[in-house]
Amino acid sequence: MSESTSPTTEPAIEPGTDAAQAAEACCGVSACCTPGEQSVDPATTARQAKTDAGCGCVTGSEGGDELPVVVIGAGPIGLAAAAHLAERGLDFLVLEAGEQVGAAISEWGHVRLFSPWRYDIDAAARRLLEATGWTAPPADALPTGAELVRDYLIPLSQVPALAGRIRTGTRVIAVTRHGVDVTRTVDREERPLLVRAVEADGTVRDLRARAVIDASGTWGRRNPLGHSGLPAPGEEQAADHITGPLPDVLGRDRHRFSGHHTLVVGMGHSAANTLLSLVELAETEPGTRITWAVRGASVARLYGGGDADGLPARGALGTRLKRAVASGAIELVRSFTITRFTVPDGGPVTGSVEVIGATPDGERVLAADVVVAATGFRPDLDMLREVRVDLDPATEAPVKLAPLIDPNFHSCGTVPPHGERELAHPEQGFYLAGMKSYGRAPTFLMATGYEQVRSIAAALAGDREAADTVQLDLPATGVCSTDLPTEDEAGEPAAVQQDQASSCCGGSAPEPVTIGIGAPAGVGFATGHLHGYSGDAERGGA
């Protein structure tokens, strides 16, 4: 039922007692145990000032220590957070909008990850699973999204430490402070966080929390197809012709693409996976045509390093895509900026949509039956309007994390280790983790998310040393430098050896890293060193 209990009131201190005398001596804190106290130093919270002064009334305020940590999202990062909280002996509750754990991943379950199983499993999760007799899948096998859910996430959700603490079909719509809105400062940190969620039957529940870890990801919040971050005129009216990223071209959605002309827009691994699936479909389904439109002049960033990629399967993806374009199986349209959509009556192709774009040579019209929007994602920030978050204006990531992941200068392999301190916000006890913590940056790795939640759980347990000891082992996830030749600029690379991939920047074998290939929660570019988007300028002719 809905939490409607008012915040508990701390007991009054009788005048003349030792406690009262201690309260009066609380370094710059007025009325130690009243709800209206303020710290004299604006940089120090009332609770911290009272704690530093030895005020006994701090303990147990609002019953906060007895409340659970609420984790939003039961994907790989959310369940990893639950595993670490369980190992720390902290009470927690996981809320998942889907009908099962890993619901978002299930939507792209047909896509195979780049990294083998040995790198796809969180350490705490593995310990909890192995204690139940669970056997890990073959370490070197590359799982699909569906296999990741079936063989890892579902079993993890059923271990004794997590079972009964995961609520599916429960969508979080807001996070706030109990009894106050975002404008209220006085007494703010004395109150627990409050999570409002809607269950499948429409029931609204308010849940009080000691802390909140928002690991809800970005799936379902795709970027628009228009330029400048805005939907193109007519984009909404053309919605029936537009699919999200990673449609199941060879399976569930086959009928929509077979014998039709598909326009794929975007330059991430989601686009690459869809393009290659369409190529395979076209081999057996006459009339299936494929056009790939990108805003930039170069696609070398997606082609990547071929056999120089630290993740062999990802290098192979770029190699196959390059060949498909060269063979004419895919028509590549560069420097195409979508300016509007038109759905004509009896247009040039029956049932088609016209996608109009600006190019260096003037306006161009691409008519297609289906448009695949593989343009990346952005976080849902509407649910966070009543908590105080400090976000970078460019990436919409936590301000301390933003410079470490900025896609203008970083690729997925150059993000340094980071943890609770970089993820903390002015709202004490609130954290963004996983893909959502990266905001609009597409450089997220699951391995990074696992380390994030390990550090957060340690901090919530009071283990500051463990929280601050952050480590992240990554392979050189692509070519050493964007100045080196790529497939776009040089001849075809040697065949990718799946079992003996090497990197020019490190050892002969990849270090632990997980990247959800094709999955919006794990898109990364195939470069291993600094440059990110800035590298495009160096390869403008590619």
Features:
FAD/NAD-bd_sf, single chain, disordered C terminus, alpha/beta, FAD/NAD(P)-binding domain, monooxygenase activity, Auxin_biosynth/cation_transpt, about 550 residues
Could you explain how this protein is built, in words?
The protein has 542 residues and is an alpha/beta fold. It has two domains: 69-220 and 378-468, 3-Layer(bba) Sandwich (FAD/NAD(P)-binding domain), CATH 3.50.50; 236-373, FAD/NAD(P)-binding domain (3-Layer(bba) Sandwich), CATH 3.50.50. It is built from 14 helices and 16 strands. The chain has helices at 18-24, 46-52, 76-87, 103-107, 123-130, 145-157, 254-257, 269-282, 300-303, 312-327, 402-405, 420-423, 446-460, 464-468; strands spanning 69-72, 92-95, 166-167, 170-177, 193-199, 204-209, 211-214, 242-243, 261-265, 289-293, 331-333, 337-342, 353-359, 362-368, 370-373, 430-432. It has a five-stranded parallel β-sheet, covered by helices on one side. α3 (76-87) links the parallel β1 (69-72) and β2 (92-95). The longest helix has 16 residues, at 312-327. The chain is globular and about 70 Å long. The model is unreliable at 1-37, 56-63 and 475-542 (pLDDT under 50).
